[in-house]
Amino acid sequence: MNTHENINELLVGFVLEELSEEQRTAVKTHLAECQQCSSELRRLEVLLECTGRMEKLRADENICESAKEALFASIGSEEMKEPTPGLNISPAFIWRTIMKSRISKLATAVVIIIAIMIGINYFGGSIDGTSKVYAMSDVPELFQSAKTIHMKGRMYFPSLNPGKEQASVEVEYWLDKENGRWRLTYPGYSSDSESIKIHLSENVSDGEYEMRVNHTEKLVSFSKLSAFQRRLFAHKNVYTHLELLYVNFELFDYTKIGDEIIDGEFFQIWQGLREDSLGTKMKLKSWLSPTTGNFARIKSWAWTKDEDWEKRMEIDSVERDIEVPDNVFVTEAPVGYALENSKETATVRELINASVGTESVTLNCHILFAMSDGSVIVGWSSEDRQSDASQEVLFEGLQMGGQLPKVATEVYAIKTSDREQEITYRGYHLAHTKKKGKFYEWSIYVADKQVSPSKVLGYSLVHRYNPENRVIKAKISISTTATLIIDNAEDFDTFVLGSMAELSDDGRVPEELSYENVLQLAQQIRNSLSE
Fold it and tell me: Exposed e or buried b for every residue in 427-447, given b needs 16+ CB within 10 A?
């Protein structure tokens, strides 16, 4: 019997805390390296949680029948399924553990045997070696692979006075990733000493046009979407949904705090806590099915200046891969709303995150990608409103990893938005593109140490004016977030190179650019900065 089989046999004893210290250490070491055994362990832990809620479990000659009755009483199920073949943990293994158990553990072990042998509807079907047990860490992958996503709930706004009812608004989010369609609610608010005014807007895409609806001002505008934009924004909106669920394991410390049966289904309750360097604290609770990976509900709170937790969000419907109703992605202006333009006059939406300017210069951040190693790629442009000269000469001779173009407003660095732990990234030329006479700079920004992109809430662009003696009194600034985190070559080719092609007349990108080459360049720069 090999090591894997030996450890597999010890899992039940591990769950029942019947192993020696040496055996427990061996199991823990193996679990750290074996996903299959880790999944088996989580399945057994779920079953053990059920037995922990049982009462009146009799340790007598009818213990098997007693255990079966208690199991079904605890889960509210009356039907059993046929025996499930192909188990990875055999009843024989469990039985050898039972023989060494105390009576209290004996009843628990028998329940585990029954559950594994018959399978139970409560756990969503067979509990065999191929059934996956889901935890919070599995949620991002589930959402990224989903074809459609739907979420619905309420957003709550800060109360003006302690004890007073919070203002709230219903929010709903739809995404059809394959067809580049979405419907997203964007709530906001303004307040004075007496009241809170809620602002609500929506973005709706039917796959060809995007309709932006300002419900507060009752205004509607349209823009066309290119094929690349449909793919980009649909992919980005997956991360928008994950942000709403606060599924970020580098910002939140998640622990499992309990379980609950909701509408006959078993859910584990996960709590996430986060406190940033400025003392802002948030708390999240998620009810997650370990069998399906579905949520029953999600709630979040913020810690207030009155030293109390205050609601911020309640999501009571989270669905994946469901059929979308016909009217969800309809881009027709609501009755009574004023049109700023129409579909007939709509133009292709420009790829741009933020834009600022003065009477003499402009600065545009078109898109920002955070790479898996912490480096950042920014597509940006700048115009000199006081000159009609072509910028072509400013981009001649630039080398990958070399100096940036000396345009009117040069983004020579970026900084993280966290003022208490601000990190500066220096900028280097990566590539440039040209579209309709306008030049776009693509720069890579690298810090002297690796920074996890998931821990960065936002970035600020740091600029200087050219020529050096140029004086501009008006202050401009751009702060933005990463459009996407790029952690594989396929996403790099699709979205980073795709963005460059989108902002190019001929749709071509530099041949030397690849995911591996960019990561290597970033590491070379990082090494030089630390010398």
Answer: bbbbbbbebeeebbbbbbbbb
